[in-house]
Structure formats: C-alpha cells, structure tokens
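Lab notebook, design round three. We kept the backbone fixed and only want residue identities now. Task for the bench partner: fill in a sequence for the structure below.
Input structure tokens:
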C-alpha cells in the first residue's frame, strides 16, 4: 500500500465522522463544506443536488427535533460501522457502511450509506451520498415523513 492510499483512507474516515458530529450538532455550514459544490444527496424521500438543496434537506430534518408531539427528540446521534473504502485513484473513491441513529428514546432507525468521494484542493469531500433505511422504530424521529 502506498502512502497516498493511507492518507486517503484516513481522510475519508475523518470526513464520515465530521458529517455525523456536525450534523448531529446542527452545524450545517460545516456539514455543507464536506460536500462538493455539485454533490448529490439521495434519501428515501427524494434527491437533492448542490449545496443549497442539501442545506434545505438538513434544515427540514432539524425541524423534526422541535415540539411536534410525534417527532420531538432531545438529541440525535448517528453512529457508523463497517466502513469499506474502495480507492479508485488518487482523487476518487467509493464506500459503504452501516449506520444507526440514537435519540433520547433509544435506537430510532438504521440503514446504509453508499458514498462517492472526490478530492478537491487537497480535501476529500462527498460527491454523492445515498442513504438507505433498513428499519425504524414506529413513531420515532426517523418515522416522521
């Protein structure tokens, strides 16, 4: 394995961790910096292209932590596991991993992230993220539209 491969793998692991930590903390400006300008985000309810649309998706999701009875959650925590990274070349890669989401009520929903990455200006970013949901707790935060 070459040095660039080790650096790429560690940078991608860090990227995935920053996505979770910043998103869970509501730091959406920091999350958006993790995406390429032309990135695509695919979630079960639809696709979002470019940072503006992706920002809207996060803003809408954050609203579900508010006061409406079924969706309110005091906190959201995303955890990822089994991150499998495939380097295509020095500037592109793909990966897949499992995720689970905890709230103050316990396990909420779980599934998989399927990602494409691109290195721009020396930084790895999401070029595309597909979110699948394998299961959810009925009436939980992830079960709200």
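Proposed sequence:
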């Amino acid at each position: 394995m070459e040095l660039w491969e080790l650096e790429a793998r560690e940078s991608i692991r860090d990227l995935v961790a920053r996505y979770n930590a910043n998103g869970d903390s509501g730091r959406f400006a920091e999350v958006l910096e993790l995406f390429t300008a032309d990135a695509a985000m695919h979630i079960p309810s639809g696709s979002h292209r470019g940072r503006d649309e992706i920002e809207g998706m996060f803003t809408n999701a954050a609203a579900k932590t508010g006061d409406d009875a079924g969706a309110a959650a005091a906190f959201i925590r995303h955890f990822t596991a089994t991150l499998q990274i495939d380097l295509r070349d020095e500037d592109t890669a793909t990966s897949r991993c499992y995720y689970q989401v905890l709230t103050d009520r316990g396990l909420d929903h779980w599934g998989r992230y399927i990602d494409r990455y691109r290195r721009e200006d020396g930084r790895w970013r999401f070029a595309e993220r597909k979110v699948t949901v394998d299961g959810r707790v009925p009436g939980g935060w992830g079960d709200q539209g």
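Keep this in mind before ordering anything: The chain has one domain: 3-143.
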